[in-house]
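TA notes. Do not distribute before section.
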Amino acid sequence: MIDGEGFIRALAEKAPTYREDFMTIAEQLEARGEARGYQLGRRDGVNEGEKNASRKIAQQLLANGAGRNLIKIATGLSDSEIDKL
């Protein structure tokens, strides 16, 4: 596997007049990577932080005697996810 950051740094060292251009390219690649990571995280429609919040709410509802169907509607959790709580 190629070390992209190292490659950009090596190019910048060999051609110092283009250092700013290389860094701009590196920043663009980094932004693309961040965007791809965000898309992958959202691929299933719910990120892990939202899932954790839903689990916490479900636990609180269960502890206060809420019905299972209400918990499913309020949190979007499945029966198996609720069973794990």
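Switch to the second chain here.
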Amino acid sequence: MKSSSFAFVAAPVLVTVYGVVRLLDGLDGERGPGLAWTAGHLAFFASLLLFVPVLWELRRLAGRGAFATVTAVCATVGVVCALVQIGIDLVVGALAADHDDMSRMFSEVQDVPGVEIAVYAAGPMLFFLGLVVAACHLAVVRAVPVLQAAAVVLGVLAAAAGLDLLPVAGLLLITGLAPLARRSAPAVSLPA
């Protein structure tokens, strides 16, 4: 199985895992530090890494044109920014003694000029925007059914509406992306 085939399923599944673990971590009224914080963030980190081959496979399915390429590049830059954010979250979670210590550390990191916009705001948005644009582009060029693209768009909108909706977002992304795993699988040659 090609890595992008696996990624079409695994990336959104790991979004769902992160969302569920995040909800469980917050049952006591606080999130992190601890095992749930670390496990959830590792799942999301892996998900983001897996979205890179997904984005580039979406580019291929859209015809590899300039628009699809710019979309994939912008979305990949967004993934890198989000990976930096999750990396910071993991380090802070590992170093912090308690939730108050985490808050202090996050404030220090976010006070560094440019970090807030690049790592916590605009940067990661490029990934989500790129995923929406790629899904819509595939629907416009009729490479995927409109409902499949709509599931991806709704998944991104659910994530944007609030992190507590990440399990729903992941399920919608699975609905929209998993069917593409078959299309990105390598062709099987039949014996002569």
